[in-house]
Amino acid sequence: MVTTHDKGCFLVDGINLIPDGPEADGALNSIGAGTSRDEAKKNTIAYGILKAHNTSGNMDKLCVKFDKLTSHDITYVGIIQTARASGLERFPIPYVLTNCHNSLCAVGGTINEDDHMFGLTAAQKYGGVYVPPHQAVIHQFAREMMAIGGGMILGSDSHTRYGALGTMAIGEGGPELVKQLLGQTYDVDMPGVVAIYLEGEPKKGVGPQDVALAIIGKVFADGYVKNKVMEFVGPGVKNLSADFRIGVDVMTTETTCLSSIWQTDEEIKEFYEIHGRSEDYKELKPGKVAYYDGLVKVDLSSINPMIAMPFHPSNVYEIAEVNRNAADILADVEKRAKVSFGDKVEFSLKDKLRNGKFYVDQGIIAGCAGGGFENICAAADILKGHFIGNDRFTLSVYPASTPIFMEVVKNGAAAAILESGAILKTAFCGPCFGAGDTPANNAFSIRHSTRNFPNREGSKVQNGQVASVALMDARSIAATAANQGVLTPATEFDGEFNKYKYHFDSEIYKNRVFDSHGKADPSVELQLGPNIKDWPKMIALTDNLLLKVVSEIHDPVTTTDELIPSGETSSYRSNPLGLAEFTLSRKDPAYVGLAKEVYAQELKRREDAPIEEISEETAAAIKVICAQFPDVSGKNTGIGSTIFAVKPGDGSAREQAASCQKVLGGWANIANEYATKRYRSNLINWGMLPFIIDDGELPFKNKDYLFLPGIREAVKNKAEIIKAYAVSGDGLKEFELKLGNLTDDERQIILDGCLINYNRVK
To answer: Using CA atoms, how far apart are residues 447 and 12, in angstroms rounded to an integer?
Structure first.
């Protein structure tokens, strides 16, 4: 089905694979395609696009300038506030501000709509594009209106992926967009490029989410494509529609890859023509001989309807296997829940099995992954003539944009969906991150969306509530709905799928979307609601650091949703201190209180309070430290907090996962590894030290103090090993930390205290 190879490979003429090894050169020469690996690496699609956007002159150390930027209403206020503090006068490249996450106006406050008005006035003032709520989800608008063959787009949402359309897109935290707005670059080592070689053709009833989940299930656990570019090639590509490719492509984020790109053809050319942008199409394909750092072979014809069981997109099974072994698989999910929730909630899925059948409670088809035209039409074909029942099962369908919504109304798909008892709703990302359609306690939801992390569906463990989300394709969700909640793969659908022609109506956006066409109007005043606050003052890195460990997390992976919850908390995203109150609230509710206690000590230090007056605990720690480091004082030693997590940062690009720690006095993270580049970059851009510690027993525990002498000089001088000390009544216990690779600019950002300070100094 999906296989990986432990070595690189050559791809000849876009079809023939030659695995790297002793016989590779001979095989290449025998077909007249002999070339060196270094030269062949330059023949990937990814290399060509990166070279065209690199400004460093060194393809090993990239300094990338993007063509366009995109953000949504959880992230754009903070980005623009940061850029304003650094001297922003106008958007130098097209920047689209969409409103698809906090589309709903909160009861009891004006928070969301105030932020939307900030976005509109910012687009007017600085020369951007503003997409009002319910018009389109961020990524669908980008596909329809922004993607360009051979181009690059940077977005402040982790699912910024437009590779199927020939655009290399990357999702990062807000500070990376700030850099682009200020004329700076995205700095990264040349990533490895992995061939995703498609062959065969999907069987009837198999959709893009099935293919995506099969790939994720194979490559996530071992990090096969982590921080690399996934390049989709091979003879199977031509057997997939544009919508199908898009549906696979958007889910590549869940593999932890850096970006994705596909070979393009007449199918993609037609997509651009349908959207009135034929001039933006570009044919992309590998050179005659291209070398890839890895190979994932995908036999499309062998993939069956898949399901990612709670609580991760990589927890993948065939739906048929779940139905055969439901009791055992549900018991495994309950064990996983124990790891995430402990004894905080009662969690059981045994009631989902009734008379040998697996019943689910809710279906959702939504967002950038599920809300595409073909997904909805296929679901309608399956639902036609059926009804979802009047018991607990519900189904909601969210077209990804208003043009898609209009077209399914015109072609009758909407009628089939509504007649079944399902509900058709406007473009909204809420179900994907817990701001809409939150299930009942202990309910089981199947969703064609992007993630199924713990609590991401909106439940609150701290209140004793928990629900489960499994990821599936729209087709199998519809088949399950037609079977009134009994888990059913779409391959059991015995009807026919119709061929629907898509007609894009651009007038919808012309009549409602504000587009400055790149013209800034400095006379416009930003509309600032009472919840929109400036970033608090942050100071430069001190000579030494005294850190208190305020959270210790030993889960195999810690998601950004656990670091800063999504859902209703995101209404405070424009208020740094307000949002920070929710930091780690679902994972470690004690964190905020402990971090605040430490930060209060730091604030006293900044006011030149004598060490002995800061707190008894701090004074005792400093006394132990001074026995070995007599020059330590409140003048040269900052006091802050840190967390330890085994592998933090899987999931969202939201910078708040780091900035919320920073505004509460956080100065570092300590980890065995970081799940994604984007989370590590968020830490750096907020002036936090991304420490690495070797696997094994920790030399410290939660609530211990750690002392880092000479940390400023160590960062400045690019020290490979950072000496640290665990402080106890018995003295100091030395251990080692590492910072990993940092660019010169990243080091300076940490030294200055954050990206805002760095730009002010510049």
So the answer is: 39
